[in-house]
Design goal:
The protein is mainly α. It is built from twelve helices and no strands. Helix 2 runs parallel beside helix 6, helix 3 packs antiparallel against helix 6 and helix 7 runs antiparallel to helix 8. It is elongated. The two termini are about 25 Å apart.
Amino acid sequence: MTITERRVPKFLKFSQRPSLSRQLMGIGLVITLFFVFIAVFAPVFQAWGWLQDPTVSLVNPIHQPPSLHHWFGTSRPGYDVFSRTLYGSQAALQVVLLATGFSIVIGVPLGIISGYLGGRLDRVLLFLMDTIYTLPGLLLSVTLAFVVGRGILNAAIAISISYIPQYYRVVRNQTHSVRTELFIEAAQAMGASTWTVLSRYLLLNVIQSVPVLFTLNSADAILTLGSLGFLGLGLPEAVPEWGHDLRQALEALPVGIWWTTLFPGLALTLMVVGLSLLGEGLNELVNPRWQQRGH
């Protein structure tokens, strides 16, 4: 095998998969794209007059049930629940992309460097990541959110810390198994620099599990953001966010005001389910055991 004959990453290989897996992944993809569409075009819908401003509190009506004028009813502060629910997907998408992006940008390079170089650096990074990994993710996010304060960027930072060890551990283990391959040894023998080996020959062969972690962590990040909002530690109150809206709606639920709880809760649940189905489908796609069953 020459240097140019790199091993094809598993996620680029196509094989026959169980029909149920394809169906579930397709359902998850449709649900996810639906929420992405809403998040992107919600401001356009508002500009066209199809949505009310979700940050403007209506004096009247308050706690009105769903109607032709307010499809999902109104909440106690006088917000239009339909607008708040649709705009909530925008906040969720922003935090998810930032949180998972931070985790990938930090965790993947550290995993490659640690797994390739080994030695004392590997032991120190492994100890540090294992320490973070043992901490409860939600508790760590709540603690960090309390320290850094509210806001989309702050919430993303607080959520991302607990995901970094996952990317690190997966990529490090993959790097350990790939670094002894013949094409890596050939590149080293021909004088390729460490940076060239890491970026050109190792990277594509060790990131096949990153898309799976991305989707599964995205689902978890939405739940974590909802938990932070429910505790009053997520985004500012004026920003539409499902967890915060559920916190306010909980007070009205005992007196029969069900719509302020149902629709934000349903949106949060559907988005989590969609990302989870997509992640499980990708997991079966890149998992070698499933590939073997497909032959």
